[in-house]
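Researcher: Sit down with what I've pasted below and flag anything odd:
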Amino acid sequence: MKKHLCLFLLLAATAFAQTPKQNGELTAEGMSSIKVKPDVVKLTISVSKLNDSEKNALKELNEEVAKLEGFFTKAGLPKENIKIAGYNINDNYRDEKDKKVYQANNSLNIEIKLDNRVLDALYGELNTGNYKDVSLDYETSLSGELQKKVRANLLDKAIADARQKADAIAKSLEVKILGIKHVSKYGRDIVAMANEVKYQPLAAASMQVEAPRPATVFAKYEVQEIEETEQITIIYEIGK
């Protein structure tokens, strides 16, 4: 009986020794940020006319828009990049004497490659040209092509940041990084991100303003950069 017990213990110890050890996991988050000069500008040009006659309000609106269209053609703005954002007439408007008047509105969106000379020419023309009741706003962004390049750069930097953090932790714990088990960002598998960005190249405008005029701020300063960020989570396999 004693011999059988010793043999059982010996076999159990041998089996335990042959069981492979489970390697551990180390999770590290990598972050990166880049400031990028935008390469696309979206212009919104709004025209608004008031008149006590609906017919005259629409007539004045169309005439003002026609003048703008003439300038767009002269300036070389691509027609395919000009879109109607809004066109309406409001009959619930009251003037300062509480008299009913009609308000006719038209908004145009123009999306082109960012060029300070274009913005300078547009704002300068609207300020010095024969235009009334016209406003111009702009918003900058990254084109799909530039955004794709920026995202790839951010991803590389975020991965490097995660690895640097993982190396520091592994060294402190006296373990080795054996490989990568999983990579994700925002809780999604990183592989699914590859073909998400779609873009349509934009045509450039070639502004040609003949009459001399005072320069606007766009002739003196650059537009503000856009900060893009990335965050990634990497699970590493670690062992002794």
About this structure: The chain has four helices and eight strands. The first strand starts at residue 24 and ends at 36.
